[in-house]
Amino acid sequence: MKNGLVVKNLTVSYDHFSALWDINFEISCGQIVGIIGPNGAGKSTLIKALIGLIKPISGGAEFCGMDLKKNRKRVAYVPQKKGIDWQFPITVFDVVLMGCYGRLKGLKWYRRSDRDRALQLLTLMQMKHLHKRQISALSVGQQQRLFIARALMQDADLLLLDEPFAGVDKTTETLIMQVLTELKAQGKTILIVHHDLNTVEAYFDALIILKTSLIACGKTEAVFHLKHLNRAYGAKGVIFDEAIRLSLSRFSGLR
Asked: What is the pLDDT of residues 190-218, one digit of tens each?
């Protein structure tokens, strides 16, 4: 699968505790892929291990036939909001410009084209009027849109987003999905850590279902069903009633 994301034998541990165990899957390019599972399932750990923020015990990943850690220029990462210092004295515009830092090479300053592109992306994310604002003054939805704009500035082929919809309003969520759908149409591959099972079928072409080990990976219509949700969230809905309710509704034709 030369043109996609291939993960082989990926195992990650924290202090002798298994966070991910022997993960293997393949994702074709040009898809929006959801990563779902209960809290502590290893969803964020998976994304961090893919790009080398966490060192796995074994295994690794390839993208377009190359080791992902050696192919980082083609990858953009949007972390959880809680992992960002929002009090750091920097403007919205400067954060977006940081997305092209890896392309500057020997240049000391951003080019005019970089600045124009940053403003275009802020316009796309409906934030151009905020370009001089300090990031500490942004709302939750604005914060998320800001870091997606920075990721887009990298012009990456693989985007990894860790809970981009957490705490945002429906308008912001809709805007983000519209932008990501346009990127998919351009052939970009997008992985999203996600919690809201109500939107899984509407948002994702494929799913990765985790609970430390891999429960399932495949087209959404093929893997988003009761058997896999029971394995991930708890048999008979004891641990995650909502997951089971959604699945039962889907298969009884009520949705």
From this structure: 999 999 999 999 999 999 999 999 999 99
